[in-house]
Amino acid sequence: MSERPSEPAAAISRDEVAHLADLARIDLSDAELDHLAPQLNVILESVVSIQGVAGDDVPPTSHALPLTNVFRDDVVTPGLTAEQALSGAPESEQQRFSVPRILGEEQ
Amino acid sequence: MNLTRRTAAELAESLASGDATSVEITRAHLDRIAELDDALHAFLHVDEEGALAQAAAADERRAAGNPASALDGVPIAVKDVMATKGLPTTCGSRILEGWVPPYDATVVARVRAAGLPILGKTNMDEFAMGSSTEHSAYGPTRNPWDLERIPGGSGGGSSAAVAAFEAPIALGTDTGGSIRQPGAVTGTVGMKPTYGGVSRYGLVALANSLDQAGPVTRTVLDAALLHEVIGGHDPLDSTSIDQPLPDVVGAARQGASGDLTGVRIGVVTELGGEGYQHGVLSRFQESVDLMVEAGAEVVEVSCPHFVHALATYYLILPAEASSNLARFDAMRYGLRVRPDGIEAPSAEEVMRATRDAGFGEEVKRRIILGTYALSSGYYDAYYGQAQKVRTLVSRDFEAAFERADVLVSPTAPTTAFKLGEKLDDPLAMYLNDLATIPANLSGVPGISIPSGLAEEDDLPTGVQVLAPALADDRVYRVGAALEALWTDRWGGPLLERNHGLDAVETGAPA
User: Fold this and answer.
1) ipTM reported for the complex, 2 dp
2) Which domain holds residue B15?
3) What is the pTM of this model?
4) Closest chain A C-alpha to B237 CA, distance in angstroms
5) A8 touches chain B (CB under 8 A)
């Protein structure tokens, strides 16, 4: 492969891993970051090989079999009761999911 | 004959003839689980009371001359990735510890409607990410052939349960080989149907475009019988195929004659050679020779893009998984952890702390990899490119199936490895799925059949048979033929040669 600058390098820094963990909403400890970053690099090095394998003329496959939209009649069918839907909730109140405050301090 | 040694087909005959009751059969399997599972850990949850109640109901239906299906009363084990109403469903993860779904997956609902008592839920790698069950948050399952070794993964609980005669049949899911590879390393049969052939409704999704549920059994006929129960169109799954299922049971019975006259078998050049264990390749070559003796014609086919299948898979899977697992947000179900030292934490802070505490290492690795592959700037180079290579893999299959009716390869490159051996080397772990992944990328059906023991370690090997999409009957026919040819050669089923559980069975110290 030629080294065009537009292509991502098969390397990921510890800071990038921290940023990705932030995007994925996972608190990673320093020890976890130290452990994960090099492992992710090894994996990325092995998957980077597919760059350039398929040319622009190859269409992407997003599903294994050709699919068309599936329609059905708009009929009411029984669903979960409120009690069932809330049965696994960490906390609930007045038939609703109870959640921590949504806004941060600065908002 | 010991009830737990019988196949599902034999149990169905016993039930139909009145030779045994479902309560007796179910009790025998529950006793076997009680005897062995401390050592094996195939089950995360055993539902003794529920299974016996379902068995009693099955016996009443039989007595009234009104069985719900041919398998009515034959007990089954269910992989813990499937929602089971009233039974815990954890996916091997702490984040779902104690969660009891308020509904059944379609496959579970069909199994219940057909009258099969559910023995319990089987162990798995967390969210089906892994090839060894070592990534289960509840501890690994052990291989019934050697308790120091892995039973395959992610569905190692189902394969071990069936191999150890704790259950006659089980349900699994296969995203990159999680039914077939455990089958190969435990000497059992594992079938991944055509994508869309079995409903995904109620499976906790790993990678939606790759996931497929299927049978985990000891014989090809049993797999076909279970396939018939769970397969077919489901309006609750928009990717479900709206066509009748092929006659898989008829195909398995036809194949059992061992005759393969006129069948064209394609040996895939790229699925063998370097990286494959010597004994695995020897048993594979002998399998091909047996099929030729039975009348098959062999052609060598090249699928040049298969060399990119592993990389393609490890971009598509983490991308889809990172998106799927976003639903574990500590708000509606599952674990909720409050971060230390923060007074009145926000929802986002709770979410971060929960996902850190609730997800294991492999799940975090893949979520971060997927988040990376989907990031703007990298999307085209990684995820977009992987989707294109997926097209090329499918084209390779199309070309190969013009020259051959089925394709064959070793199922897994090695026999079962030791627990812990690859735990901290993700890439080495991923290589286990080298031969099984192309079928998931393309959606074609595949079955793994035992092909004997590798001479260097006396552990099971497996052969994989692949067919074009929708031609599931072909893999049953060829699979059943190969099974018949090998069983004849061995003078009995391969599992009879397993002495790995002898010490546990006699109560001797392990």
Assistant:
1) 0.90
2) 3-306+390-505
3) 0.96
4) 10
5) yes
